[in-house]
Amino acid sequence: MINKFDDITKETMLSLEKTQRDFWNISRATAEFLYISIIEHGAKNVLEVGTSNGYSGLWLSKALKVTGGHLTTIEYYPKRQNIAIENFTKCGTIDVVTPLIGSACDVLRELPEDAKFDFVFVDANKRESIDYFNLIHPHLVKGGIYTCDNVLSHQEKVQPFIDAINAHPDYENVVLQLPAGLSFARKIR
């Protein structure tokens, strides 16, 4: 699927894949799945928690170029966010990206009440996964998709989130056997 992108984007993504372990990036299989999911869902307002160097954000923002949407992405570390911004700029997606800096929980608490998202991707501090879910829930529209990476590779740390989303009457959730495990939920009410 990477072949669908321009040469600069392909080169950048392949370069970022070489630093996957250094920056805790998602696998290409997970990235491709998210890309297709955003397009198939017709997502317009996507929230990413955990920008890192921008690898996943490039896949998300490239999909949003297709749907005419926008990505809001949160990163704790300024150095990583600067790298991500450079990658978004180089690959021509910075115009559909709003990078936010700070503790994800603090940033999420400060979201305006009317901020709404139809697709969420979480790949940040695993122990805070339940906090992210509780803070994002009011901002996810009915029919929206909530995804969380590392639910198998970091199962113990994310178990409170998995228990909460599985028990929540507003969500249908499955865990996909993608590398590291991906929770994929739809908000049904």
Topology:
Layout: H1 7-17, H2 20-23, H3 28-41, E1 45-49, H4 55-67, E2 70-75, H5 78-90, E3 97-101, H6 104-109, E4 117-122, H7 129-136, E5 140-149, H8 155-167, E6 171-176, E7 182-187
Parallel strand pairs: 1-2, 1-4, 2-3, 4-5
Antiparallel strand pairs: 5-7, 6-7
Number of helices: 8
Question: Rg from C-alpha positions?
Answer: 15 Å
Low-confidence stretches: none
| General form | globular
In percent, how much strand structure appears in the residues? 15-25%
- In round numbers, the mean pLDDT is 95
The CATH H-level superfamily is Vaccinia Virus protein VP39
Number of strands: 7
Largest sheet: 7 strands, mixed
The neighbouring-strand order within the major sheet is: 3-2-1-4-5-7-6
The CATH architecture designation is 3-Layer(aba) Sandwich
Which CATH class? Answer: Alpha Beta
Helix-strand makeup class:
alpha/beta
N to C succession of SSEs? HHHEHEHEHEHEHEE
State the share of residues found in helices, binned by percent. 40-55%
Total domain modules: 1
Cα distance spanning the termini: 33 Å
CATH topology assignment: Rossmann fold
